[in-house]
Amino acid sequence: MFVRRNPVALPLRRLIRFRAWFAFVALLGAAPGVLAAQPESAPRPKVLVIATGGTIAGVQDVPGTLGAYRAGTLTAEQILASVPQLAAVAQVETEQFSNVASPLISPDQWIALARRIDGVLRSRPDLAGVVVTHGTDRLEETAFFLYLTVRSEKPVVLVGAQRPATGISADGPINLLAAVRTAVAPQAVGKGVMVVMDDRIISAREVRKHYQRVGGFDGGDMGMLGVVARNGPEFFYAPARRRGPASEFDLAGVTALPDVDLVFAYPGSTGRTYQRAPAGVVVSVTGFTCAESATYQALVRTGVPVVAAFPSGENVSGNDPSDSSRARIHDECPGMDSTFVFRTPWLPMISVHHLTPQKVRILLMLALTRTRDPREIQRFFDTY
Ligand code: SIN
Q: Which one of 2, 118, 280, 294 has the minimum C-beta count within 10 Å?
């Protein structure tokens, strides 16, 4: 018999069927046996989630829209409440370090956060690891500072979200779940501080935010350490550079970080002038104008380290330019020492190894807590 179907009701019924199927799959996904790699009776590892704010704690003026929001609004407990699946993976404790948008996280707070994480991992052998929720804008800087200064083998994982907690398809809950799964994974021990975003596990040394949409974090040329798959984290690589317990950066006697400026070199620039010289300067550079070179040379002569870094994070090598390029540069900038002009005005030149200018700044700040000797500063850049 021919049955006439209501053209509106059919897609609606399909949608309802799809939703029922989706709910069933979601329920299955939330079941402890699927999420946790251990039997239900096994004690779940303990994790401390330290919340600092950011979009992962963001609430919109009109929830459920694409509209504006205020970062750093929900508390750690409220964020956790949106991820009931966590209970199957770990016993989660929370701590509210701050509740701000990440541009408000200052170097003083880096020091306080590193001390807190180091201290709690030292005094609490029962903790498997620490997860830090953080705004994505400055996540890579905090992560790298912690990478250099937290002297524990245990996993420390930073995580954020690009959509607010009340937004459509918020990414915070799945990112947080992936971060906690990584922090409790035995394979994560000794890998240094990591960032988990969009199921990618990225070393804090390499991580960068390329754009402010979901999927916007990666490790540049250096890629990622692994992924968080259905059955848990899968690692493929380990960082090779110094970190964790081997780090020389002891914050015990450090009350504030040296004042290191970060500036851009650009066509037509004459370089930055200072009323009071900073402790160091990092120049994000693809090449210097003659005037910039003269400015930074003058700064170096007063004893201020000036370090050049490519915006892309590529290596800026300490090699002298070839003789022919020396001659050409000399013609272009008459009266100038050509070794200064081409790449970096520091003598002997500091070579930075695949670090973005922001991260060069952080390593230079920490290096300057230990030394002002250029050879020793170079050793830090060669090691970390
Ligand atoms: C922030 O960095 O706090 C705001 C942006 C974000 O978390 O994505």
A: 2
Strands 280-284 and 260-264: parallel
Q: Which long-range contacts (CB under 8 A, 24 or more apart) does 8-17 make?
A: none
**Which residues, in sequence order, are CB contacts of 199 under 8 Å at separation 6+?**
174, 178, 227, 228, 229
Distance 97 CA to ligand 1 centre (A): 16
Strands 200-203 and 127-133: unpaired
Give the position, in ligand 1's atom list, of the atom nearest the Cα of 56: 7
Q: Name the residue at shortest CA distance from atom 7 of ligand 1.
A: 135
Domains and CATH numbers, the chain: 10-246 (3.40.50.1170), 260-383 (3.40.50.40)
Predicted confidence (pLDDT) per residue in 294-332, tens digit: 898 888 888 898 888 888 887 665 444 444 444 445 567
Segments in the chain forming alpha helices (H): 9-30, 32-35, 76-81, 107-123, 139-149, 172-183, 290-301, 323-332, 338-342, 357-368, 374-383
Minimal CA–CA distance to 356: which of 289, 283, 279?
Answer: 283
Instruction: Write out the catalytic residue numbers.
Output: 55
58 Cα nearest atom in ligand 1: 7
* pTM for the structure as a whole: 0.87
